[in-house]
Amino acid sequence: MGKYKLHDLEHGTVLDLELTAGEFGELKRFLKELKTPRESTDCKLVLERYNSVYKNLPPATRLTDKRKRAILRLVKDGYDLDELFRKAAQSSFLGGGNSRKWHASLDWLLIPTNALKVIEGNYSPIAPAPSAPMTGNPFDEYG
């Protein structure tokens, strides 16, 4: 077991630790992982995918910091943005088929509560209810 000092430069504190060699190795790997950026999401590619799916709307052309943060937040939360855009494009309501002719924009879709509703199918086209099967012979009364 060895004694180690862990320096928190952000807060200006030092933590004394007693760790085994295995624990120290694990801590080093963990700290290195924190420094290494995870698989980055290409926000520009996400914007291009949105524009390719939503052809009937004006394209989203600017990749603002707010949009980048929203994209990264949804990806971090496990959302499949291709699925989100595909389901949104299949919805007549989100495409303007509503009483106000309102269209869902990229910014609207990137709001987590809205994305969840779209992914869960709240705006999916409603299939017509199956009609009741016909019983009897309709020609019986004509004898």
Draw up the topology in text.
Layout: E1 2-8, E2 13-19, H1 21-35, H2 43-53, H3 65-76, H4 81-90, H5 106-109, H6 112-119
Antiparallel strand pairs: 1-2
* First-residue to last-residue Cα separation: 100 Å
Mean pLDDT: 84
Largest sheet: spatial strand order: 1-2
SSE ordering: EEHHHHHH
Total of domains: 2
Number of helices: 6
Any descriptors?
about 140 residues; mainly alpha; two-stranded antiparallel ribbon; 2 strands; about 10% strand
Brief synopsis:
The protein has 143 residues and is mostly helical.
Describe what this molecule looks like in 3D.
With 143 residues, this protein is mainly alpha-helical. The protein has 2 domains: 2-35, no CATH class; 43-119, no CATH class. The protein has helices spanning 21-35, 43-53, 65-76, 81-90, 106-109, 112-119, and strands at residues 2-8, 13-19. A two-stranded antiparallel ribbon has the order 1-2. It is elongated and about 100 Å long.
